[in-house]
């Protein structure tokens, strides 16, 4: 087993050396081609250079294709197969635990604010705990400041400071009596 791994590693090394050598030859030929364009050499020499560059490119591609599966085999053989372990989800917190954490965090937040320390991390923790508590139904959902819920049938306020109109049966009765007395 180890002998075959050594042989495949040796073969792979030789192929990589050959690949590097062909790449350097290709670079040299491309530079020669660029110089020949500026020196205006014969078109036959340029065609020969193009053909050699193309043949080198094909051989480079075949060697790369040969090296790709070998890399996968060598890596697979060298590395032992490890199955990923299932990580159990964290245990769910009870309502009491969340409430205790929330109260502790709020108390810490108040003390930090009184001492004048930076309390941004604690504010985020308190907001997260409140959100978690609202998901468990322990408290009302946290609504950002300035956002009001629009409910159907909510009383509407019109005008400037005149208050809102609500139906009051006692008041309506007296208004009705006043109306009849005035008529």
Poorly predicted residue ranges: none
- Cα radius of gyration in angstroms: 41 Å
Number of strands: 0
Q: What structural class is derived from the secondary structure elements?
A: mainly alpha
What's the main sheet like? none
Notes on the structure:
- The chain is mostly helical.
- Helix content is 68%, strand content 0%.
Short description:
The protein has 183 residues and is mainly alpha-helical. The chain has five helices and no strands.
Secondary-structure topology with pairs:
Layout: H1 2-39, H2 43-78, H3 95-115, H4 120-135, H5 169-182
Helix pairs in contact: 1-2, 3-4
Q: What keyword list fits this structure?
A:
mainly alpha, 5 helices, 183 residues, elongated
């Amino acid at each position: 087993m180890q002998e075959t791994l050594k042989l495949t590693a040796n073969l792979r090394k030789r192929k990589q050396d050959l690949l590097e050598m062909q790449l350097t030859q290709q670079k040299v030929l491309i530079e020669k081609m660029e110089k020949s364009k500026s020196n205006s050499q014969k078109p036959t020499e340029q065609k020969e250079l193009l053909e050699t560059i193309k043949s080198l490119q094909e051989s480079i591609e075949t060697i790369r294709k040969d090296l790709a599966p070998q890399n996968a085999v060598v890596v697979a053989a060298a590395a032992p197969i490890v199955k990923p372990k299932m990580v159990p989800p964290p245990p769910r917190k009870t309502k009491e635990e969340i409430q205790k954490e929330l109260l502790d965090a709020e108390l810490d937040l108040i003390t930090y604010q009184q001492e004048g320390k930076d309390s941004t991390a604690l504010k985020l923790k308190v907001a997260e705990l409140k959100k978690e508590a609202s998901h468990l139904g322990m408290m009302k959902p946290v609504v950002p400041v300035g956002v009001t819920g629009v409910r159907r049938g909510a009383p509407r306020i019109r005008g400037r400071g005149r208050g809102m109109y609500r139906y009051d049966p006692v008041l309506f009765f007296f208004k009705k009596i006043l109306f009849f007395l005035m008529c």
